[in-house]
Design goal:
By secondary structure, the chain is of the alpha/beta class. It is 39% helix and 15% strand. The structure holds pyridoxal-5'-phosphate (PLP).
């Protein structure tokens, strides 16, 4: 008979559940029990498959990445790896592909976190980045140098919803013998599957559409085994793993991804049209609009009728008008991020793009009043009514 403390710690003999649970169990454990010293050695050496430690690999976290890979590549060839955040995925990807002296070509409009990573952190290790106009494929080709290791792209840019010419950019990367990595966060695999257009690696902030409920943070990298394994190694070494509880929430989100994103994109197109017709609005950025510079490209690359679910509306009256619009919102939440069930809005120049001065904003085509709206699952009529009233008196 063992003592109370030992019984409390170890419990009775565990029931082994051989039956398949409908919902995958959450492996909320930091480590795994192995059968023998030899098996432990073999699993650590990679000679035998098995789980050792959850910073390295965890079944719940891996199941999430496998599920995303299956959405990105229905043929089942691509593999996925999970990360603790989108930035974790981006950092590990860039560290895997670059060394001191490497050069990166990235979009002028790249997501702020990626921009900061490249300019504030990786630059300290001798990794230099050229930020270019990604809509100009020739300019991208001209920016490539002998030491360029990565062409970084985004399927849909923030906040302009500019669409990347993925096949054209993939050709540039192939000609130069460099990796083409795309951040597909704003699109999700429901709107676009970049691997089908020649992209080498796809990264996502799973915090957005993949999870879809604004209650979990995560990231994922998807692509061919050899490349993804290199990124995984950096994750293991730097500790940017997705926790199993977060993974379970994100996996639950995936089940409704096509339903949510289809609905959000449809609503976004209706909202964009209504706002574009209003005389108080200087410009609406959404690729569903024939007036958007990339309407034709999006129609070619994206799933039929889907153009993303972020709408950027720039009221006439500049910065004050944009901030006043944010203050008048009643239904749409004043919050950053995107992809959740609740619609959210931010004034771009004072939040997501606050690091840019007026000239840089102008060069990037961002108007001083720009308000980025992430469309949620509410009724389109209610969103339109809120956004129109938030524009205020003419
Ligand atoms: C396009 C894009 N990529 C990456 C990220 C970073 O993701 P996370 O916040 O999960 O680290 C974000 C976050 O807003 C994003 O919008």
């Amino acid at each position: 008979m063992t003592g109370d403390a030992t019984r409390a710690v170890h419990g009775p003999e565990r029931r082994v559940v051989a039956q398949e649970p409908l919902v995958p169990p959450v492996y909320r454990t930091s480590t795994f029990v192995l059968d023998s010293a030899q098996q432990t050695a073999d699993v650590f050496a990679g000679k035998e498959s098995g789980w050792t430690y959850s910073r390295t690999d965890n079944p719940t976290s891996q199941a999430f990445a496998d599920a995303v890979a299956y959405l990105e590549d229905p043929s089942g060839v691509a593999v996925g790896q999970p990360f603790g955040s989108g930035m974790g995925a981006i950092t590990c990807t860039l560290l895997a592909l670059c060394s001191t002296g490497s050069h990166v070509v990235a979009p002028r409009e790249v997501y702020g976190g990626t921009w900061t990573l490249l300019t504030r952190q990786l630059s300290r290790f001798g990794i230099e980045t050229s930020f270019v106009d990604m809509t100009d494929v020739q300019a991208v080709a001209d920016a490539v140098r002998p030491e360029t290791a990565v062409l970084w792209g985004e399927v849909l840019a923030n906040p302009s919803m500019t669409v990347s010419d993925l096949p054209g950019l993939a050709q540039v990367a192939r000609d130069a013998g460099i990796s083409f990595v795309v951040d597909a966060t704003f699109a999700s695999p429901v709107v676009c599957r970049p691997l089908e257009h020649g992209v080498d690696l796809v990264v996502h902030s799973a915090t957005k559409y993949l999870g879809g409920h604004a209650d979990a943070t995560g990231g994922v990298v998807v692509g061919p085994t050899a490349l993804v394994e290199r990124v995984r190694t950096v994750r293991v070494d730097t500790g940017s793993m997705l926790a199993p509880d977060e993974a379970a929430l994100l996996t639950r989100g995936l089940a409704t991804l096509p339903l949510r994103v289809t609905r959000q994109c449809t609503t976004a197109a209706v909202v964009a049209r209504a706002l574009a017709e209003d005389p108080r609005v200087a410009r609406v950025d959404h690729p569903s609009l024939p007036s958007h510079r990339d309407h034709a490209l999006a129609t070619r690359l994206f799933a039929p009728g889907l153009f993303g679910a972020v709408v950027t509306v720039s009221p006439r009256g500049g910065r004050e008008a944009g901030m006043a619009m944010i203050d008048r919102l009643q239904l749409v939440k004043r919050a950053t991020s995107l992809g959740g069930t609740t619609s959210k809005a931010v004034h771009v120049p004072t939040t997501t793009h606050v690091a840019m001065d007026a000239a840089t904003l102008a060069a990037a085509g961002i108007l001083p009043g720009a308000v980025r709206v992430s469309i949620g699952l509410e009724d389109a009529e209610d969103l339109i009514a809120d956004l129109l009233q938030a524009l205020g008196a003419e």
